[in-house]
Amino acid sequence: MATNVKGKKKRGNSENSKLITYGTIGLAAIVLIIVIAVISIELSTNDVGKVQGEKIYDYEYEFYLNKALSDLQAEVDVEGKTEEEKYEIYKKFWSTPDENGVLPEQKAKKNALEDARKFKASYALALEKGFKLTKKEKNTIISNIDYTLDYMLQMYGAYGYTRDNVIAQMCATMSLKEYKKYSICSATVEKYKNNLKEGYSVTDQEIKEIYEKDINKYRKVDVRFLFLANKDEKGEKLSDTKYDELLAKANAIAKAINETGKYEDKDFETYIKANSDDSGTGLVTISSESENSSKKINEYAYARKQEELKDKEFTDCVVIEDEDAGGIYVVRTEKIEDLDNSKTDEKENLTSIKDRIKAERLEELAVKEIEDITKSDKYKVKNTQDKIMQKYIDKLGLSKG
Fold first, then answer.
1. Own/partner long-range contacts of 368-374 (Cβ < 8 Å, ≥24 apart)
2. Would 376 be classed as within a structural domain?
3. Is residue 8 part of a domain?
4. 78 and 191 in a common domain
5. Is residue 385 part of a domain?
6. Which CATH number covers residue 293?
7. Cα distance between residue 68 and residue 33, in whole Å
8. pTM of this prediction?
9. Would 60 be classed as within a structural domain?
10. Are residues 170 and 232 both part of a single domain?
């Protein structure tokens, strides 16, 4: 059985709230695709090893183990499979060793320890460099977490979620107390990274090169479409004759909207609301991070150029036949946000593409500097408790099917 753990990400405005960028809601934002139950084991000790005297707590290792397991399973191709088929594929995956006789769960065990080591090494380094949080900063983090929990309780409580349900949603595998402690460590690392970032510079040329290497990741294309399903009132696929009539109608709608702005005395948005076989106004924003279920709509969006909207509010409508989606689209482009026209608007909580790329690059540089420093033997894990780590693996029983 698969468990998905999802969470909300909260953006703060004050400098203090920035300290919990990685901590407060970061854990719950990770989606665990894998079949993993929350592990509760009574242990004689509460750490699985130490880095520079800093304990890697068992709850931290559990979190990284769940993430490592999820990452491994995410590499398994189950696209287009039924839930039953997915289950069998995953079952075989976890019980099949590699060419060296190593089971996936043992790889995850090793990966989790390394991720936990990196985290604690970064924390130890931040402390060494003098970036320990003040009491005020710690209290701010705890207050923000409590505020977020109360907010989520109000939001999800109306749907029957209990306090324990919400804490699990927010804190992943950790208890609330553990989560707060972990968040303080995370914020300490963030404080150090923010200081490092002040010493870096990212040129406009670098930003442009990063953008052009992966335009569809950053560029956002707003398209609006009418969807006409290739099926009758009974849900049966239309005959060839009826489909041709549907296609003719789609072309007539596109032609009328392009020439007069209306079809059956309704503008495009109004007509979509009343007649589309897809709900809503048909307006979607496409990027490689937010794709539509229709590959053809995505391809249409990626092919659009800013010049097509020059002196125009939107492009002409075009008709797209999509057998995989089971119908016909009448679609137009209404906005393209690219590197040149994207702007930051703090009031609207919007970040420009340029500022986003710069922030990502600064983060990348800071992480690399920390990782380069903490690769040394000084930051190796000592007093590793393999039996404790193995207990978490055994509890899951993934390799047993």
1. 369/196, 370/122, 370/125, 370/189, 370/192, 370/193, 370/196, 371/118, 373/125, 374/118, 374/121, 374/122, 374/125
2. no
3. no
4. yes
5. yes
6. 3.10.50.40
7. 11
8. 0.80
9. yes
10. no
Full residue range of the structural domain in which residue 52 is found: 15-200+381-400
Specify whether the CB–CB gap between 128 and 370 falls below 8 A: no
CA distances from 333 to 55, 302, 325 (A): 54, 11, 19
**Angle at which helices 163-171 and 135-157 pack, to 10 degrees?**
130
289-322 CB burial, b ≥16 within 10 A, e <16: eeebebebbbebbeebeeeeeeeeebbebbbbeb
| Domain final residue pick, 337, 357, 390 | 337
Q: What is the pLDDT along the chain (401 residues), one digit of tens a residue?
A: 333 333 333 333 333 333 333 333 334 433 333 444 444 444 334 899 999 999 999 999 999 999 999 999 999 999 889 999 999 999 999 999 999 999 999 999 999 999 999 999 999 999 999 999 999 999 999 999 999 999 999 999 999 999 999 999 999 999 999 999 999 999 999 999 999 999 999 999 999 999 999 999 999 999 999 999 999 888 899 999 999 999 999 999 999 999 999 999 999 999 999 999 987 789 999 999 999 999 999 999 999 999 999 999 999 999 999 999 999 999 999 999 999 999 988 777 789 999 999 999 999 999 999 999 999 999 999 999 999 999 999 988 887 76
- Total domains present in the chain: 2
Residues 192 and 249 in one domain: no
C-alpha neighbours within 13 Å on the C-beta side of residue 233: 0
